[in-house]
Amino acid sequence: MPGVLLPGMSSPPSDNDEELASTNKRRSGRVSKKPDFLVTEPASTKRKRATPHDDDDVNGAEDTSDEDEDEDEAEDDEPAEEELRERRAMKTKNGTKRPAAKKPKTNGAPVRIPIRSTPAKKRPSKKGNASTVPNAKEVGGLYAEVFSGGKAIEEVASKWMQRFEQHESNALAEIVNFVLKCAGCESEVTNYDIEDVDGATTRVGDLQDEFQTQNVSDYPIIAKTKFATTLKATLVEFFGVLVKTIDATGALFTSPELIDNLHVWLTTMTSAQNRPFRHTATVASLAVMTALTEIGKDLAAAAATAQRQSENMSKGKGANKKRASGLLQDATAAQQKQAALDAILQDWFDTVFIHRYRDVDPKVRVDCAQALGDWILAYPDVFFDGAHLRYLGWVLSDSHWPARFEVVKQLRRLYEKKDRLAGLKTFTERFRARMVEMATLDSEPTVRASAVELLDLLRQAGFLEPDDIDAVGRLMFDSESRVRKAVVHFFSSSVQEIYEGKVEELGGEEAVTEELGDSAESAEQPGLPWLHLKCLVEVLDIYDQFDPEMSKHATRGPGDNYRLHAEELESRFIIVAETLYPSMDNVKDWDTLAKYLLYDTSDGGQNGVSGDIGSQLRTFCKLSDREEFILLEILNVSIRQHVSNLVDSAVEKKGKKTKRQRDDLADEQESTAREITTLIPQLLKRFGDSPQTVLAVLRLERIVSLSAFSDFQQDPSTYKNLLDDIEKQFLSHGSDEVLNEASRALLRAKAYTDLGDVTEEKIDELWDETLETFRRLVGSKNLTVRGNLTSKVVDGLTKTMARIERLAAISNPVPHLDVTSAATTKSQRQSTAASAPALELLTNLIRRAVLEPDVQEDRSYALAEDTLSLTAARVVGFYTLWSLSHLRSSLEESNPPDSSIDSLATSRDAFISALIEVLASRLPSAPIATDISLILLDTHIAGASLRGVTPKQKGREDFLALALDVSPDVTTVVLKVFGAQEQRFARVTGKHIEKVKEGRKARKNKKPEERPVDADPMDEDELDKDLEESDAEAEVDAEESSDDDEEEQEGAREARHMHRALTAEQRLCEFGVKLVMAILAGVVDEKPVRKRLEVNKTKLGANYKEVIKLLEEKKKGKKEVKPKVEKKKEVLVVESESEDEEVEDDVDGEEEPEEVVEEEPEAEVESVLGD
């Protein structure tokens, strides 16, 4: 037979002897046929080859020099000089045409683009990979048959087998060329190359050398085109069908040289240095092995079936010995074929998989992991053992996350087979720790989520240790939602197991039901639903306390674990409950949750006989304080989700509801709102002692205030009772979070028209009660003297001032703070302080922040004094804003008396004077200096709004006395405070900013303070010296911790550092916004403030850039009247009346030209005063 694949045999010469001779003349892989060029050859060049075959006549140095070849190839593309002259002449004649863009040249040589004999429809890309996926019709051959879509893969494989029977080497050459085309290579092998098996390595080397000259960066099976997405799947399908077709014809075992030669060429290509060759051949080889495993599976099944049938027929009276003998021969033949096939598979495995599963290309490793999983499932007789499973275990530590993800996916497929779990026990013991590590610590959330699902299968099989179960269960607190959702089933199953264990302790579910009857499932008293909830919160409490990073270092609110959200701190139990809500029915049952919380479980053992099931059940259902808090958070989520679902159902547009359905939905919404309104006072009464639980209960009031319930007429008495309870919590707790939540509840209640009067009455009662407490604490003390109050009184005043601040934020404080108190006792009548208006007392409290020089104070007491004064400043600031707002309305609607304006001016002047005194006595870096500066700017900006008022009484201008500008001296001080905040942010983040030189007077009076701006980022402990918090406890913990805790301590330090960086940036941007607003309002001298803000505008982050953009917009609005000033690099001087500050502009002019501030006429500055 011609072209048979046997040593020493060759095929007959082809019809085109010249083409074969030309093709086989050279072994370098370079095409010997002269390519066609897009342009003609130039008349003269530096050095030209006479013919394409002159390569063979060049000496070895020239032939191996890549530089010379690149130069020659570039020169070959140079157009002829005559043609260039003709083109230039055409351009001169036809001036209307757009000139063509010049083509880039390499090393001074013009570029010529060669093309093959096939017509090119598209211009080649710059990288030469525009034709990454060859066109099937243009390529022809087996590639066209497979990818043209005209024939089924089975038909293509069948016809190839027919060609193989006619000419073996030519048919096999088609297969090899098919793989080459799939790799993007245009070169081919011939039947002579196929017959020379020993030369396969050399020929593949030549092919890849030629292919690499094309500088291909992409290849078909990874190309991002529509056709490429199906090319890989079609390639795999073709080789699978081909191998099965070979087996169906019997050639797999009768013509072993076919699979052997295919093995030689594919394995040679899988070891190539060229990535397209290696990857494509590996995909083809893996597809061949997958098909062989499926054949082996069928042979094993056939052998077992024949063996079993033979044994059955050889037994009994009606035994058919002849038939049994035939079946036994069939079984023996199938076993022999299976043994031969196993040897073939082992040969392919040793030469392909063992080398490629750790390939440098991660895509190859992913394909190998996927294929091995398919083999283990398809042919467990060979691959389901420790020798093959270990490769999956090793890939678990792959550096490429898709490879880790793929192997986890394959392991999940294996563990889902219940009948294979026994064979996985040894593998699990070896790699369980790694799988747990991936679920808890992997850097990629997708891998972690998949690993959690894998460990859930291990848990069901009983392969996990208790510590592993707890480690995975704690992922319910993970920051990634994908991981939390993946662990829900694992976590809920663990809780269910604990619940079932406790039920068994009670004697089993049947015994409990028999003893308690219907009450066993009741939501009114201790029963099985409560026991399940108890197990849930118990596990959450244990997992929460185990996490030292969150428990010790993320405490920024009431409770142990709060996470920072956009608006407020929210317990991470809220996040857990939201994740569990869709999957756990007992979390959805908010009515049972509420009744469990309202039940006093502290006396659970007093009723009933000791030792009976009911008594034990009540003991099991006892809740600790932390567990009650966790259950309250779960209740909050349950009610919120329930209400949200009702609202979504009401507005849902899919499907029309009947009138009955709409009425039922409306009734359910109203009844839910009424039940929640009734529930909140009961919960406040039950959990009103702890600020932590009170906060959780008060958050339920937000749900009642949703807009969806505003249409329903609630009973005013019910809301009044709710407001009574909120008032009690407001007066009994000093926690900032509780006060904020209570004040929000009161503000929302004011929005209800029917409750407006009731709410105002409650707020007035709160004002009276709070101010009475305030006066009682003040007594006859001189409030301007710092340090004359005890720590207990300062603490009481601080809490009282916090309540006054919240009240001033939600209601008008003017009527309450202007009232003079009536003296009721002799000591009060003799004291001017007791009878003075509250506003005057508050202004005096601000002056307590004035720090006398050389006075030593206890740090904690000094911090308490500063907090008291700062709170008083905020209250007076609210008073001023309310007063100015009321004055604007009065001027536009009526004619307010002069006395009211004079009174407001007097109080405003006293307030600003107190703020300036505090600023003058403090270092710019003091935390209180920033807050005082912001309040000062707010007051001036609010006063500037009066300039735009048109009074009802024409010609009246006395009110403009309240619209004062910030004096230059105060502006200088405020800018120093801003600079300190700027420096603080730079130190925390390690940014290098421009220094601001101070004038001689400033340097003379400068107080000693912080280190250089461009020093290394400050450590947390250094920053805490300027903050109210301290890391002393964290330092002690770090010193006493073992080496195993070093990683957790480092993570906690990083979290604290990030928190401080974010806080510093927020404070800096807030300060910058206030200064920008002051410029826009015209209350500060624009020129020095603008210059100071723009000194480091490109070095303080994107958020700060957005702040400065407000100034840029204003600057663009005045661009037309600005004189043009030549930009130059120089020292910018910030001018003021009191002292000079030189700002050194060391920034390169090309990088930051906007930092050069142009001169502006004074008229332009004045023009914005009314804006």
Please explain how this structure is put together:
The chain is mostly helical and 1171 residues long. It folds into seven domains: 34-115, no CATH class; 136-382, no CATH class; 384-464; 488-635, no CATH class; 653-742; 758-964, no CATH class; 969-1166, no CATH class. Helices cover 63% and strands 2% of the residues. The chain contains 53 helices and seven strands. α31 (625-651) runs parallel beside α33 and α37 (756-778) packs antiparallel against α38 (791-810). The C terminus is likely disordered.
Number of helical runs? 53
Largest sheet features = 3 strands, antiparallel
What are the low-pLDDT stretches, counting only 5+ consecutive residues below 50? 6-85, 89-131, 548-567, 604-609, 706-712, 823-827, 1000-1004, 1008-1044, 1119-1171
- Residue fraction in strands: under 5%
General shape = elongated
Percentage of residues in helical conformation: 55-70%
The main sheet orders its strands as: 5-7-6
Question: Which structural class best describes the helix and strand composition?
Answer: mainly alpha
Number of E-state strands: 7
User: Number of folding domains?
Assistant: 7
Distance between the terminal alpha carbons, to the nearest Å? 99 Å
Radius of gyration: 42 Å
Q: Mean pLDDT, rounded to whole units? A: 77
